[in-house]
Amino acid sequence: GGGCWAGLWRSGGRRRGRGTGRSSSSGGGRRPGRPCAPLRFLGRLECFPVHGRSMMPEIHGGQGVFGSDVVAGIKPDRSCPFWPRPGEVILVVDSKGRMVKRVRHLAAEEGATGRAWVWILGDNAPLSEDSRVFGWVPSHRVEAVAVAVVWPPWRAHWLLKPPRRKEAIWGPLPP
Predict the structure, then answer these.
(1) Residues annotated as region Disordered (predicted)?
(2) What's the CATH code of the domain at 109?
(3) pLDDT score at 131
(4) What whole-number distance in Å separates Cα of residue 112 and Cα of residue 115?
């Protein structure tokens, strides 16, 4: 799991039609969440084209779908608690649109529920507008945790390490 971060993560009240507010119960005598996890995973998965060059060489940006990588990400919330960890790539929304950046640090306000922040940096520092420019990003601005580059096919690769891939698909594994 995400430790105290998971308990403090905040959706910020953003509600979108697809994939939000669905039940994750699996019913019967089965282990809760496990048999239905891949379906829940698919309901939370969304693809995002990358436009800038701030994440090169890991992720290539460009103009249009054929000139840029497309990243698949999981939208975390309390029903699908796939919270970002340091070193992982996330999709962030601000007034200018979406950005793809790497999480360097996580912070949570002590004693408060729902208040958390991320410090994000681009892999290509000279071309990146990131937390060095605008500071800490509130957790409700994080739209998704990037799982993989899915397009173009010759550049497709995982962005998560193997244990996190399993967690992304199956949910948190029991201790």
Answers:
(1) 11-36
(2) 2.10.109.10
(3) 93
(4) 6
Task: Give, as one character, the DSSP assignment of residue 110.
Answer: T
- Three-state DSSP at 108 gives strand
DSSP annotation of 31: P
Would residue 68 count as lying in a domain?
yes
Average pLDDT over residues 108-117: 72
Instruction: From residue 4, give the alpha-carbon distance in Å to each of 103, 106, 116.
Output: 17, 11, 10
What's the pLDDT band for 112 if we cut at 50, 70, 90?
Answer: low
pTM of the shown model:
0.73
Residue 15 lies in a domain: no
Please report whether residue 58 resides in a domain: yes
Domain that holds residue 46: 4-10+33-170
* pLDDT computed for residue 82 by the predictor: 83
The verdict on residue 84 lying in a domain is yes
CB burial readout 112-151, b (16+ within 10 A) else e? eeebbbbbbbbbbeeebebbeeeeebebbbbbbbbbbbbb
Q: Per the structure block, which two tokens stand in for 8?
A: 């403090």
